[in-house]
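To whoever is on call:

I kicked off a structure prediction for a single chain this morning and the downstream step that reads the tokens threw a length-mismatch warning. I double-checked the sequence; it's 108 residues and nothing unusual in it as far as I can see. Pasting both halves so you can look.
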Amino acid sequence: MSKLCAILELMRTNAKVLFFDCFGVLVLRQPSSERIFEYVWKKDKNLLNFIRQQKANGLKIGIISNVAQYQFDEFFPGKSKQNFLIFLVLSGEVGCAKPNSRIFKNRN
């Protein structure tokens, strides 16, 4: 079991709410297959499946991220985010960014 899976399992067994960041967690930077020294962002499908399963098991799932709404919507358009999110807090929408503690007190 990977370290991330072990941490997520510990969180799942002790938590009622799980929250994640967007870029670098749900969406990973990977080398481009078309251009050298360039990267593309791709969804981590394994983590998204884990999140959906945990939501089905009754956990509340949210995102707290320092991205703008349009950036988030590029990867999770329309109703796709409703399939797994209970709350979404984006720094551009609330006027503060992580690690400022105020961002963790917002829920929209």
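Update from on-call: the warning came from a stale cache, not from the record. Cleared it. Sanity check on the structure: The longest strand covers residues 60-65.
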